[in-house]
Amino acid sequence: MPSLNALKVSRAAYPKGRRGPALFLDGQGLNLQIMPTGSKSWILRFMLNGKPRTMGLGAYGDGSSGVSLAKARELAAEARSLVKSGVDPIGAREQAINAGRAAAALSIARAKTFKEVALEYVQAQEAGWKNPKHRAQWLSTLDTYAFPILGDLPVADVDADGVEEVLKPIWLSIAETASRLRGRIEAILDFAKAKGWRSGDNPARWKESLKHRLANVSRIKRTEHHPALRWEQAPAFIAALETREGVAAKALLLCILTAARSGEVRGALWSEFDLEKKVWTIPGVKMKAGREHRIPLSDPVLDLLSQLTPLASEKNALMFPSIRTKTKLSDMAFSMLVRGMNEVPDGKEIPWRANDGRPIVVHGFRSTFRDWCEEATSTPRAVSEAALAHSVENKVEAAYHRTDHFEKRRILMAQWASHCLSLEAV
């Protein structure tokens, strides 16, 4: 027989002189527990698989604010029924709570659209992106291709059919953009899963999903590289470049002679150059790989810099400021310069073109340098790759890579400058 009633429970108080919780037995393992603070709650004691267990049933109280005696007996009866069936009522309750949380998360996900999640992902990640253009490129490709199809769809409902619908129209025609877009969608969906807004496999992942739906582009056509000047023509091009006036021409000359990226040259500061030690040190924040890069300066490069020294207004000034805006030269300044050097009368063949006949572009000069290293010198690959500030792709090799081959590169860059300034090499 139960030993408690509603009046006894409401009047029960913590016994004087007692230490620890005080228990008032109701029967069949159900107890009213009173703590020294006076707080009351219900606990159920039972045996499961030969081991004693204690389960809390909630704080005592009437109405929605707590558990009454009648409600406690009801909860205890349900728990004992589970125990009789060999089920742990504590574990069953935890599963129910987790299921409720999952259902709540799914409900939130139903209200979270792909576009909303994408914008949250960009906001969460952009602090780690070095280039502001990266954010613009992310949003541009999503705006153009993904949002019109997936944007208003609940992120939990994005599936392989939807991803395929986004990618298929551009998969072959603009393969590089499509590949980047696929990776961005994959990252957004991984982010959504980490937040609990979707579950299951990622439908934008290539190996697990899309390889069975889209053609393998690498097997259909090679990546189209920037059209590069043949290394044998470099001396003639340099001779023509030296006849050009203006800041862009001198900046492009430095770009070619150092095999640096155009952005590194356009953003070069006088403070990065140590003319006595003959070295240009580019901070890691300016480098594609995020690591500091040292470039040995050959004598022809030092001669070029000596011509520019009078233009230096202060140590931290730009080496090649725009004459009009006094800010960094735009990439278009280089492009227009090279295009101008290829302007010829109608019917006449352009002088500066790649092997496939395309007009050369500024970004191709690094390939010109690389080809020269391979075909005209016995330079080890590791040295030429270090000169181009390329990362070591093989993780094992990278772990043991401890040198930037600086002194070997000093010899190499002197040879390259000598080749570029030697018309006899044509």
Structure, described:
With 426 residues, this protein is an alpha+beta fold. It folds into 3 domains: 82 residues, 2-Layer Sandwich (Double Stranded RNA Binding Domain), CATH 3.30.160; 110 residues, Orthogonal Bundle (DNA polymerase, domain 1); 195 residues, Orthogonal Bundle (hpI Integrase, Chain A). The protein has 17 helices and 7 strands. Strands 1-2-3-4 form a 4-stranded antiparallel beta sheet, covered by helices on one side. A 3-stranded antiparallel beta sheet has the order 5-6-7. α4 runs antiparallel to α5. The longest helix is centred in the first third of the chain and has 23 residues. The protein is elongated and about 110 Å long. The N and C termini lie far apart (110 Å). About 2% of the residues have low confidence.
Quick overview of this protein structure:
The chain is of the alpha+beta class and 426 residues long. The chain folds into three domains: 82 residues, Integrase, DNA-binding domain (Double Stranded RNA Binding Domain), CATH 3.30.160; 110 residues, DNA polymerase, domain 1 (Orthogonal Bundle); 195 residues, Intergrase catalytic core (hpI Integrase, Chain A, Orthogonal Bundle), CATH 1.10.443.10. The chain is built from 17 helices and seven strands.
